[in-house]
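Changelog-linked ticket: zinc ion example.
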Amino acid sequence: MCNHRHSYDPARCIIPPYISNKLAGSPDKKIAARAIKNAVETVKLRAKREFSGGLSDAQRALLQPTKPKSKTAKLNMQVYDMLHGTNPSAAKLVWDNGTLKGKSDKQVTNVIAAGTATWDFYYKLFGRNSVDNKGLLLRHFVHYSSKYNNAMWDGSEMVYGDGDGVIFGDFTADPDIIGHELTHGVTQYESNLAYHNQSGALNESLSDVFGIMVKQRMLNQDVKTANWLIGENVVRGSKYALRSMKAPGTAYVNHPQLGTDPQPASFDKYVKLPDTSSGDYGGVHINSGITNFAFYKAAFDMGGFAWEKAGRVWYAAMTDKTLQQEASFKDFRDLTIKQAGKIFGKNSLEQKAVTAAWKSAKV
Ligand SMILES: [Zn+2]
């Protein structure tokens, strides 16, 4: 459970409150106890981050944006093993910019592969050097706590749990989740979309949009062969995923513990929820289905690889200096249409596809 205290809190968890609350209220005592323990661990982690109490001065210095050492941009990344503990100062450095420093395992390998692919995606396609475009050191912490059911970007680094092995598997298993969390960093350094209501759902959606493209590029999948599922390995069971961009609301149906995916695919079905932690700040992980679907439609209609056309349009809109912190879906729609015209020409097929995609999502 990701207990944000405020909507502007930078902690961004992959498991939304509508899922963790359901588990905490489960009639299965084991599941409920695990969910509550998970929440307590998240609070502990968050408290540590807020006060940096568990970090040495040297480690705190590492949290600051670092300038690239040379003019040629290159990946700046470290992977730490939390050894199932919750104290970051006790974490062991396992991998340091290409050099193995400790014992590697599946989680370490997953994070190196997807973390590298995310950096490469942003650099090769958009010339962006790390999340801040200044070569920020990307620090990943695996094996956080025991059976921890979440992954998060906490404003400066990534933390992954192993999952309980029952409802959730290993949180490093899906490259789209790693790309999703790192894209929260990109958004933070660009428009810093406010994490509530429509701007918050847009923030969530941009993370899914770029996360799914990172995965599709790693797997060399075009828009037709891709399944457009977020977190297909993280939610256990072959019928389940966390979200579907192609068909929001179908990622899990009648799951014994999670129920049915609540995401709408169109703006007329926008879910109004309170702007509070338990209301998912106005349903940021729910209403993101609407803008996710618009991206899927645009990418699918343009064909080929998603990052070749739709991805370029969405990146240009995401980094457009006129994108406001409190932007609405309509604001973002207008920006993508404007950018599609700039990149591909006014009334181009691409611009028409973007306009039609938003129409499909009823925005
Ligand atoms: Zn997120």
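Closing comment: Example verified and attached. The chain has two domains: 12-189, 197-360. Residues 65-69 have pLDDT under 50 and may be disordered.
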